């Protein structure tokens, strides 16, 4: 084990994979000479040269497409979209091409491509630079979407993504780059498509991914200390495929769930999670599944508005308390003569 | 970025005609004053950023003052400007009150975009600044569409659309110039070639580093001009704008320098020592000021007076911005839809979708009664 930041874990894993496999190479805007907008690729141009660390023009559609073509011929490109917002310029290449090529050509060509990109609001970057649109990719069969919330998972999921033969959207988060944690030294890829129970508990299931999985762990720990609550935390880790079994199993035990997401609520990742719980654990639920998500507005620049729009720890705690209150109300009580007004 | 390769310098300008000399001198002094305004405003913005009064990204026009001044002087007030995130100077020279420009940086209600846009997204319909855009190249199709609207309605306004050298690599550049040329739209595309897109040089981002030559692919007239000389920029821009007014879109490349990092927080470590040294002597304000002084248009007193006047404007802007209120959280849902729509979500993150069902006192549920 080594304690390191999420950023360092990504950097070291990229480097290790480039050393391990010559087919692995990096492309993106400002990843070489500038060392990456968020410095994930610092030093790699110097070490590996510009054949394997390629600065591209500002041409998201162009370089994403080039990476897909290279992957079809057997290379294993890892591209960086400076932020997930800019990946929209490459949507045609990613969704109409990368995600389709394997199936559409009857399995004749594979696209072993990793698209690394950070999401995340809260940096006062305004409407176009603060979005969490991983849903766009998680919606599409043919894509895989992973979202590590810890340095250990940053490593394990990046190893898995690079070694996978399908296009993987690897979601990072601006707010997580400086967070620290233990990272195993072993070369141990995670399994894509598996959620993990990062904290066992019995009172309620708190579900999150990326930054909100981090928030979930913090809130669960603080409510354990302050209120003696025993909350189970599930980190989705993989948005496509979605590990419904782990979610349902947890809710069957706790009978209540709150889902945290940094994207917008309507049609968001949390909607799919809540629907899945309803499908798989309906009879076990003692309260409606609550979602805590971003306010549905184009993100404003002004700090008080931005703060109000983003889910906070207090929002999460409030949703947990309200859900547990609803559970309490649904406990069996003596029947009254006039029944219940619904 | 070898300085020879930049080819910034164009031929020296002819001396002003004698009869117009007085008027001309006034305009030269006004150019100088406006360049100083942008410079001091940007320096103040950088300070406010360091003081954490400004958030997000903050890209400055330092080094581009002559380009901004020359270009803006070629527009009529009714012409439209589309630009990118490096737009504070453009906002000022479109005539927007510096107080409101600074207030936008501070994210306050009196800001040009009411605190919703920030540094990268200044917009003011009255002054026909149709945006600051943070997505590289995002403004290009929009500007083309604005020109289409002008053409459709039969007006004689022109759209001027600036973009960076790095932006010339993006797909939207090709699509927009092609459409504009194909349909003879009244639009001037201006590449502000400051040599760098973040840390990437033109040589590393464009297979044809003479960016103005890209016009040929669309049979679009094009030219390159020295972006350190506001007079040369103005003349080139006037020509370009007149062509566009006649329905012939134009591509102008303005060669300039970015004197600091990409944004306020970028230390620009990718620059070589030689280049850093060279830039110490490449300051458009000093160069233009010395020229005007040598020509007898300015003297030390006049320069000092301009500096004092501008310092007053900039200080007042910072004071105004600091006093302007933050937007109320109650306004968070004010701008989601222009046409109100039922079922529009106005939920803060912690609020439930439905209020929990009431359980009237004195009544109670059997577990079977409420589980559905
Ligand atoms: C679609 C998109 N890709 C990448 C970025 C990140 N980015 C912001 S500015 C910039 C460089 C642009 O350089 P240039 O066009 O030369 O303009 P300058 O900053 O020099 O004014 C990049 C890559 C972005 N904002 N939008
Ligand atoms: Mg540039």
Care to give the gist of this entry?
The complex is a heterodimer of chains A (about 350) and B (about 375). With about 350 residues, chain A is α/β, with parallel strands linked by helices.
Fold and architecture overview:
The complex is a heterodimer of chains A (about 350) and B (about 375). Chain A is of the alpha/beta class and about 350 residues long. Chain A has helices at about 5-20, 45-50, 60-70, 90-100, 100-105, 135-140, 150-165, 210-225, 245-255, 270-280, 305-310, 315-330, and strands spanning about 1-5, 25-30, 55, 75-80, 115-120, 145, 170-175, 180-185, 195-200, 205-210, 230-235, 240, 255-265, 290-295. Chain A has two domains: about 1-185, Thiamin diphosphate (ThDP)-binding fold, Pyr/PP domains (Rossmann fold, 3-Layer(aba) Sandwich); about 195-330, Rossmann fold (3-Layer(aba) Sandwich), CATH 3.40.50.920. In chain A, about 55% of the residues are buried. Residues about 335-340 of chain A have low confidence and may be disordered. Chain B has about 375 residues and is an alpha/beta fold. Chain B has a single domain, classed as 3-Layer(aba) Sandwich (Rossmann fold), CATH 3.40.50.970. Chain B has helices at about 5, 20-50, 65-75, 90-95, 100-105, 140-155, 170-180, 200-205, 230-245, 275-280, 285-295, 300-325, 365-370, and strands spanning about 80, 160-165, 185-195, 195, 200, 220-225, 250-255. In chain B, helix 7 links the parallel strand 2 (about 160-165) and strand 3 (about 185-195). Mean pLDDT of chain B is about 90; it is low at about 1-5 and about 365-370. Classes of the chains: A alpha/beta (about 350), B alpha/beta (about 375). At the A-B interface, helix 3, strand 14, helix 11 and helix 12 of A face helix 13 of B. Thiamine diphosphate sits at the interface of chains B and A.
């Amino acid at each position: 084990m080594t304690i390191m930041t999420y950023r360092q874990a990504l950097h070291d894993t990229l480097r290790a994979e480039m050393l391990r496999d010559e087919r692995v190479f990096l492309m993106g805007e400002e990843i070489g000479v500038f060392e990456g907008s968020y410095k994930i690729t610092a030093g790699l141009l110097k070490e590996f040269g510009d054949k394997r660390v390629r600065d591209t023009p500002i041409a998201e559609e162009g370089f994403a497409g080039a990476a897909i073509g290279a992957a079809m011929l057997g290379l294993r490109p890892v591209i960086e979209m400076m932020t997930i917002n800019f990946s929209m310029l490459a949507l045609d290449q990613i969704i109409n091409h990368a995600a389709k090529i394997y199936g559409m050509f009857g399995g004749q060509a594979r696209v072993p491509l990793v698209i690394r990109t950070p999401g995340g609001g809260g940096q006062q970057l305004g409407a176009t630079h603060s979005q969490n649109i991983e849903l766009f990719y998680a919606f599409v069969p043919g894509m895989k979407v992973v979202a590590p919330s810890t340095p250990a998972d940053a490593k394990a999921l990046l190893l898995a993504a690079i070694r996978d033969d399908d296009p993987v959207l690897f979601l990072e988060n601006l707010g997580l780059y400086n967070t620290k944690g233990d990272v195993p030294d072993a070369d141990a890829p995670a399994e894509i498509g598996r959620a993990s129970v990062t904290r066992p508990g019995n009172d309620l299931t708190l579900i999150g991914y990326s930054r909100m999985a981090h928030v979930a762990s913090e809130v669960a720990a603080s409510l354990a200390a302050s209120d003696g609550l025993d909350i189970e935390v599930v980190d989705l880790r993989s948005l496509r495929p979605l590990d419904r079994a782990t979610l349902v199993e947890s809710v069957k035990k706790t009978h209540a769930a709150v889902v945290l997401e940094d994207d917008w609520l309507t049609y968001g990742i949390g909607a799919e999670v809540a629907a899945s719980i309803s499908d798989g654990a309906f009879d076990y639920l003692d309260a409606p599944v609550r979602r805590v998500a971003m306010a549905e507005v184009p993100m404003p620049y002004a700090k008080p508005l931005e703060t109000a729009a983003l889910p906070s720890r207090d929002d999460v705690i409030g949703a947990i308390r309200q859900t547990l209150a609803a559970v309490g109300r649904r406990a069996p009580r003596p029947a009254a003569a006039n029944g219940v007004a619904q | 970025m070898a300085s020879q390769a930049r080819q910034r310098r164009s031929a020296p300008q002819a001396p002003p005609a004698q009869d117009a000399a007085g008027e001309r001198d006034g305009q030269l002094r006004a150019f100088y004053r406006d360049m100083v305004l942008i410079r001091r405003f940007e320096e103040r913005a950088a300070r406010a950023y360091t003081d954490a009064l400004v958030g997000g990204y903050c890209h400055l026009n330092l080094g581009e003052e002559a380009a901004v001044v020359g270009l803006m002087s070629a527009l009529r007030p009714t012409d439209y400007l589309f630009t990118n995130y490096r737009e504070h100077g453009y906002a000022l020279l479109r005539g927007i009150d510096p107080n409101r420009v600074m207030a936008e940086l501070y994210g306050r209600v009196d800001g040009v975009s009411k605190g919703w846009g920030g540094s990268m997204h200044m917009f003011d319909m009255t002054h026909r600044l149709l945006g600051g855009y943070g997505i590289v190249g995002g403004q290009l199709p929009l500007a083309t569409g604005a020109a289409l609207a002008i053409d459709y309605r039969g007006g004689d306004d022109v759209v001027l659309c600036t973009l960076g050298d790095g932006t010339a690599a993006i797909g939207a550049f090709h699509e927009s110039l092609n459409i504009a040329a194909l349909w003879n739209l009244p639009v001037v595309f201006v590449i502000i070639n400051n040599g760098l897109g973040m840390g990437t040089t033109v040589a590393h981002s464009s297979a044809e580093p003479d960016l103005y030559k890209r016009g040929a692919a669309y049979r679009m007239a094009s030219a390159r001009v020295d972006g350190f000389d506001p007079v040369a920029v103005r003349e080139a821009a006037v020509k370009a704008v007149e062509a566009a007014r006649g329905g012939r879109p134009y591509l102008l490349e303005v060669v300039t320098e970015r004197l600091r990092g990409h944004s306020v927080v970028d230390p620009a470590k990718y620059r070589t020592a030689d280049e850093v040294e060279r830039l110490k002597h490449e300051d458009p304000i000093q160069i233009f000021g010395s020229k005007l002084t040598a020509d007898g248009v300015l003297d030390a007193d006049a320069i000092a007076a301009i500096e004092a006047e501008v310092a007053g404007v900039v200080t007042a802007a910072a004071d105004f911005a600091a006093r302007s209120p933050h937007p109320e959280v109650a306004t968070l849902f004010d701008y989601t839809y222009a046409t109100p729509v039922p079922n529009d979500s106005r939920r803060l993150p912690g609020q439930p979708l439905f209020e929990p069902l009431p359980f009237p006192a004195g009544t109670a549920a059997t577990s079977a009664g409420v589980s559905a």
